[in-house]
Amino acid sequence: MSATDEILQRDCLVVDDSRVVRKAARRFMEGFGFTVREAADGSQALQACRELLPEVVLLDWNMPVMDGLTFLKAARAEFGNGQPAIVLCTTEIAFEKIVEALDAGAQEYVMKPFDAEILGSKLAQLGLLQAAA
Amino acid sequence: MTNDDFAEIAGVVRRRSGIVLTGDKAYLLETRLGPVLAKFGLASLGALGQRLKQRPDDVLERAVVEALTTHESSFFRDGKPFEHLARILPKLVSARAPGAALRIWSAACSTGQEPFSIAMLIADTLGPRPECRVEILATDISAEILTRARQGVFTQFEVQRGLPIRSLVKHFKQEGAKWRVSPELAAMVRFEERNLLNDLSAIGKFDAIFCRNVLIYFDAPTKTRVLDALSRRLMPEGVLYLGGAETVLGLTDRLVPVSGERGAYGISTQRAAA
Ligand SMILES: C[S@@+](CC[C@H](N)C(=O)[O-])C[C@H]1O[C@@H](n2cnc3c(N)ncnc32)[C@H](O)[C@@H]1O
Fold it and tell me: Which has the least CB within 10 A, A16, A124, B163, B272?
């Protein structure tokens, strides 16, 4: 069985160095029916992806050890552009930063602070959730 | 506030806007009319009721309607109508008379997310220099909300509800913590104050009309009246989009559902000549 056959359909990886943010994101994602794994930086996240490629990664930008953009580029190089869907969730809200992340292969971009509604709306746009009526 | 005062305030709102406030909405008055009372130097809702009863006061009545109106909106709200419009756009363009503009109306546009979503969709579908002129008319009863809409400036929260990040980057400019629609987009939309209860014949006919999440606040006879008026603003091949909780069924036979497209309606062929 190849790695892609093992993809759990509703698996989400939350990558953030803040435990508080991870907890909030976990709560939102579990509310949407995802199982959630957590990583505290980019290198932990790469490791987690090698074990099992998640369907979607919520990715902070500024983290110790390996930051979000470095992870993003590494993940695209290693796993390709299709999977996982990568959604930046960050306080970096400058236009140039957003463009930089999109160019590096992010599918969506959430500017902190965010709530379940914003996250749900972004996931719906990516076709990962039914659009709320 | 006595029942009489409530009836007086609700009566003004209904007469001016069509919006029905039932008794269970009394809390809305309590929470939303505070600033109006302060602005007009009125001590209580009772005093407001009395004042409204004594003499007509256009400025005060406007402020009351304004305060009791829901302006909730978001970009590409409900998704489906916009997907449908994108699909039929080529057909609408080729159905126009030579030289005629493609005309789309956002009939209760609130803070502008709906007309700007339409503008983005058209810019993305037809390209920067479409072969035909495009006019997007955006109207609302509220002068105050239109002032905001015309600015085309949205908060970080607003641009994250329904708007794909690539559309944000493509069609908006960042201004501090806010986002402003591009001049190209702004130029596509004209905002005008219009009450759906008034005669609308002067605004002409449209290839598509968005009238969403406003009929829900009206009673059945008002819904019928507005739907009939909207049907007269539609080109023969035109499409009317209603909100998720709205329908024409049981209200008018001038409009019929577009089969397989929830929320989309066309002119009934039996009535097209009428
Ligand atoms: C909830 S918003 C809907 C905005 C947008 N169409 C959407 O679906 O997101 C309702 C809008 O209807 C407007 N409205 C209420 N009564 C109206 C009337 N009689 N004529 C025109 N607009 C009216 C309000 O001012 C408000 O901005």
Answer: B272
Question: Domain count of chain B?
Answer: 2
Would you say residue A132 lies in a domain? no
Residues B116 and B211 in one domain: yes
B contact test, residue of A87, A109, A130 with most B CBs within 10 A = A109
Q: Which two tokens stand for residue B186?
A: 């702004």
For a mutational test of ligand 1's pocket, the pick from B111, B212, B214, B223, i.e. the residue with the most ligand atoms closer than 8 A to its C-beta, is: B214
Burial class (CB in 10 A: 0-12, 13-18, 19+), B87: exposed
Mean of per-residue pLDDT scores for chain B: 94
Q: How many domains does chain A have?
A: 1
In a domain, residue B25? The reply is yes
pTM of the model: 0.93
Quick check: is B140 catalytic? Answer: yes
In this complex, the residue of A93, A99, A124 whose CB is nearest that of residue B169 is A99
B209-253: pLDDT as tens digits: 999 999 999 999 999 999 999 999 999 999 999 999 999 999 999
Are B119 and B40 in the same domain? no
Q: In this predicted complex, what is the ipTM?
A: 0.89
The residue in chain A having the minimum alpha-carbon distance to the alpha carbon of residue B177 is A93
B32 a catalytic residue: yes
Q: Cβ neighbours of residue B25 under 8 Å, at least 6 residues apart? A: B10
CATH number at residue B114: 3.40.50.150
- Indicate the helix (H) or strand (E) that contains B30: helix B26-32
The parent domain of residue A45 ranges over 3-124
Q: Looking at beta carbons, which residues of chain B come within 8 Å of A110?
A: 160
Residue B79 Cα, gap to closest chain A Cα (Å): 8
Taking the centre of ligand 1 as the mean of its atom positions, its distance from the CA of residue B54, in whole angstroms, is 29
- What distance separates the 2 farthest-apart alpha carbons in chain B? 60
The domain of B205 spans 80-267
| Angstrom distance (rounded) from CA B128 to CA B26 | 49
